[in-house]
Write a structure and sequence with these properties.
Length: about 425
């Protein structure tokens, strides 16, 4: 259904398609932060930001920033900044819309205000945050944390692909020596594909995010004993892999039970490695990383305790050593600003779009912007709820409708 929207669906599609063409050719769609392919994507966005008349720069944290000055400065009253943004980096073999739809629609809103001859009171800042995904450095939301002074200083020494994160930030045009911090952001909005099946299943146009689930990552190692695969009796082995397999299935069982509760919960063993990984050697060592998401921090604690108990039971049964799980990150759930949530709902209704409130199981830069400014998110449907996979797909009319909700909400925020 094409509505008479203030934004242009075909311009949005053209930018999304152009960015989709900038991918590692052998594994679409891949444009990992800090890689040459990422910088090619950035070059495209810089060109498009400048064509849109935005004052374009890379900030010290490595984010691409485009500013459309507001009237506020003319009559002395610095009104501050309304920011729209998301990320242009992808996971390996990811999709064409995760993050990208948010950056492109933010840019389109700026262009649409220009075309409508609308001068805002506030500055409008369009942002492509650096490395929202778990990057080659093993950590995520590097640019948004850096912008806001929330990037742990020890991260700068993390190594990947022969460089430190500090060198990576310089590579993309930032300056890691500059401490972050912003006090001018009056509101932040991010459009994102839902990355889940709810909107599509219920035939709803717009998701209005009320909270972003907390994310904890736990590292578990299993120390067994290498032995000859052909001669070692089955009953006297200390096989790290069979024990680790019991843990993986146990994590699935515990998470499935917790997911049946009243609040959002999910957990995944997403990283897994074993040594020596040779067919004729009983595995001696396994390392795994659990990614857990919880709307309610008490449920996350229940999960951590249950997994810890499972490690003790498993070690006792099979003679391997399993140290207590190491929690390597723990970001609590982040509520969105209720006032902005209400404005998004009003905007959706004003353009005739159906909407529903929902929790995000995925992490987003908005979780960090929400620590310094009123923030909220617009979800749009994605086919079969698929994401972080090449099958990821969103209809351009759905994306344009989300962009129109952003446009209307910026106008409301600008009056405040
Ligand atoms: O992992 C996440 O939740 C996000 O897609 N980076
Ligand atoms: Mn993602
Ligand atoms: Mn994303």
């Amino acid at each position: 259904m094409t509505r008479n929207l203030p934004v242009k669906a075909d311009r949005i599609a053209a930018d999304i398609d152009a960015l989709a063409a900038i991918t590692e050719p052998d594994k679409p769609w891949t444009r990992r932060a800090f890689t040459p392919m990422f910088l090619k994507g950035r070059d495209y966005l810089i060109r498009r930001f400048k064509e849109a008349g935005l004052e374009t720069r890379i900030d010290a944290a490595g984010n691409l920033v485009g500013v459309r000055k507001g009237k506020g400065y003319e009559n002395g009253g610095a009104k501050g900044t309304i920011m729209l943004g998301s990320h242009s980096d992808t996971v390996p073999n990811g999709g064409r819309f995760d993050g990208i739809a948010g950056v492109v629609t933010a840019l389109e809103v700026a262009r649409a205000f220009d075309e409508a001859g609308i001068e805002l009171e506030h500055d409008l800042e369009i942002t492509d945050f650096l490395a929202e995904e778990v990057s080659i450095f093993g950590v995520s939301c590097i640019g948004s944390r850096g912008m806001l002074g929330l990037r742990p200083v020890e991260w700068l020494e993390r190594q990947a692909d022969g460089m430190t994160l500090a060198e990576g930030i310089r590579l993309v045009g930032g300056d890691p020596a500059v401490a972050g911090g912003r006090d001018d952001i009056r509101a932040f909005l991010e459009l994102h594909i839902e990355q889940g099946p709810v909107l599509e299943n219920r035939n709803i146009d717009i998701g209005v995010v009320t909270a972003i689930a907390g994310i904890s990552r736990f590292e578990i190692t299993v120390e067994g004993r290498a032995d000859h695969a052909g001669t070692t009796p089955m009953g006297s082995r200390r096989d790290a892999l069979t024990s680790a397999s019991r843990l993986v299935l146990g994590v699935e069982r515990i998470a499935s039970e917790l997911s049946l509760g009243p609040t959002h919960f999910a957990a995944t063993v997403g990283e897994f490695s074993m040594e020596p990984n040779a067919a004729n050697v009983v595995p001696s060592h396994v390392r795994m990383l659990i990614d857990a998401r919880a709307e309610d921090p008490a449920v996350m604690e229940t999960f951590g305790e249950a997994v810890g108990a499972l490690c003790i039971q498993t070690a006792a049964k099979s003679g391997v050593t399993i140290p207590p799980p190491r929690r390597i990150s723990n970001n609590p759930a982040t509520p969105m600003a209720q006032a902005v949530v209400a404005l998004l709902e009003e905007s959706a209704a004003a353009i005739g779009a159906s909407s529903r409130r929902m929790v995000s199981g995925a992490g987003h830069d908005a979780a960090f912007l929400a620590k310094v400014a009123p923030a909220a998110m617009v979800f749009i449907p994605c086919r079969d709820g698929r994401s972080h996979a090449p099958e990821e797909w969103a209809e351009n009319d759905d994306i344009a409708l989300g962009a129109a909700v952003l446009y209307e909400t910026v106008l409301k925020l600008d009056q405040q």
